[in-house]
Amino acid sequence: MAPVLSKYVSQKNAIIGSAVAGVPLLIFLLKKYALQRKKTVKRRAPENDIKYLIVDKSAETKNANRAHVNGRFLKQLFHILKIIIPGFTSPEFGFLILVAASLMARSYSDIWMIQTGTVVETAIISMNTTLFKKQLLYFFAGMPVISLVNNVLKWSIGELKLRLRTRLSLHLYDEYLRGYTYYKINNLDNRISNPDQLLTADVDKFCDMFTDLYSNICKPILDIVIYVYKLTSTLGFQTPSVMLGYLMVSGFILTYLRRPTGKMTVIEQKLEGEYRYINSRLITNSEEIAFYNGNNREKLTMLASFNKLTDHLRKFLEFKVSMGFLDNIIAKYIATVVGFYAVSIPFMNRNSPLANLSQNERFRNYYTMGRMLVKLAEAIGRLVLAGRDMTRLAGFTARVTEIMTVLSDLNKGHYVRTMLTDNNTLREKKLVPNSGRIITKDNIIKFDKVPLVTPNGDILVEELSFEVTSGMNVLVCGPNGCGKSSLFRILGELWPLFGGTLTKPPKGKLFYIPQKPYMTLGTLRDQVTYPHTKEEMQRRRKTDVDIANHLERVQLSYLLQRDQGWDTVADWMDVLSGGEKQRIAMARLFYHQPQFAILDECTSAVSVDVEGSMYQYCRDVGISLFTVSHRKSLWKHHDYYLQMDGRGLFQFNKIDSDTEEFGS
């Protein structure tokens, strides 16, 4: 037996056999090493013991399970497409047509190159110099046109991506920045933890994925139509029908196997958002963390988030590799075998018209049609593989649909918060969000049986009733957590009204200044006129001289000595001190001159004499004040006080000589 077997054993066969036997062994060793390393990391890494919760996962998990290529996905996609492609006359639809036309031109360019190349090679084999030179010149002359087609296609795809992203971003920002929706999505509703991730990265990826998928589907479909027509006219319909039948079968199998891709894509984007959010928390709270020496603890939290992300990405990578293995076999290699079988049908059939041709003619037809069939097989393979991108698109579609749904709900006054739905006390007292009534009226603020309720469902005051008219300054006092900030948030319409009637002036005639004033990105002028622009200031017939007088009143006129005066651009949050920012905020109040102003510890870093002059100016120009402060020096600037004890009771009385003043 040995001599008989030895003739089958060659160096080439030995190498192939060793490779085939070694691949499974290598995979087994790598998996074993990875498993041991994972156990070691889990045993040693302290960040694995870190637990955190950023968002209620029920909504995310629900969406993740729905991220499949099915009827729901198509419904969500068509809803988004109505926004980003509003009509047949829109530029976006025009670019869709341009991309399709460019793809068609590219397919015809491929056919032209196949036919011309075949003639050139025939001339070489037949030693026909005249035909060779003629066709080579013809081939060379067509290159600029083909290059133009390719670059028009590249430009049209890039421009389509930009236009779709612009259209979708503008729509979402219109919803996000309508009224106080941007506040509510971060503070009232807990369905989305990272709206910035959805509004930027996910929108960008959705538009890229959709455009790429559109071009990746259009090109194969056009190729299939063109090559099927060409092949059918020469070889009959039997050959293309075999390929198309294989397309349907393989597409169904791979689409079913790729179903987990949509869920994994949603989870990937969620974990990316969590990781970015934890990094941003470190920046936002860096001072507090530094005082606690909490860098090591924050590092553990950050690594825990990073490990969750990388673990998922690794699982996703392994899934994509395994699917890639099947994709290559089904969409490429088996498709090639099917292609050989399909092209052999007319050539092997002795009753075919090709049987009557000479061997050279049969060879030339096989060479030309074989190339077209290869192109057809490639188109079918690309179309099958496009299902992979469609499954990922389903994940991004679910993400974009989620934020669109939440923004729509918030703009309708509906929000979802887990703690609120479990509060039995609210149900017993029949307190429902947005059940109160708001009346808009100038020169008056009136609370009539308005409950102070937080979005979490905590009842601070069951029924608050008092009335303030223009000219009355009110000092609001009480311990921390008694409801002072809640009162102002309800007054500013940031929080929903759970009952009663609130009478207040329009939004533009009520101004709020917090303890840490906000400094916008822009010029020195923008800091005083915020949120007005320079054009809006001029439209209201106010000049730089007017706002310079306001800076003088808060003793900040020296800021105008900077390089470009009012047009100086700087990072004002860092450039100005705490006291300067508070005085800028008071100058901003003087510029807007509302009917009522809410001052929430907004002069705590300002000297008493400057503070007194600013309060006196407010009284002189008729700005009525609601002030939260612990300074005794401010009592003389107010006529009434509203005191809340933190146990649900309140007092609203006039300040007179017998009133006990408290504070520091």
UniProtKB/TrEMBL annotation:
GO terms for cellular component: peroxisomal membrane. Residues 116-331 form the ABC transmembrane type-1 domain. The keyword Glycoprotein does not apply. Residues 445-664 form the ABC transporter domain. One of its GO terms (molecular function) is ATP hydrolysis activity. The keyword Transmembrane applies. Keywords: ATP-binding, Membrane, Nucleotide-binding, Transmembrane, Transmembrane helix, Transport. Gene3D superfamilies: ABC transporter type 1, transmembrane domain, P-loop containing nucleotide triphosphate hydrolases. It is found in: Peroxisome membrane. It comes from the Eukaryota. One of its GO terms (biological process) is peroxisome organization. The chain crosses the membrane at residues 14-34, 83-105, 136-157, 237-257. It is a multi-pass membrane protein. Belongs to the ABC transporter superfamily. ABCD family. Peroxisomal fatty acyl CoA transporter (TC 3.A.1.203) subfamily. PANTHER family: ATP-BINDING CASSETTE SUB-FAMILY D MEMBER 3 (PTHR11384:SF62), ATP-BINDING CASSETTE, SUB-FAMILY D MEMBER (PTHR11384). This is ATP-binding cassette sub-family D member 3. The lineage of its organism: Eukaryota, Metazoa, Ecdysozoa, Arthropoda, Hexapoda.
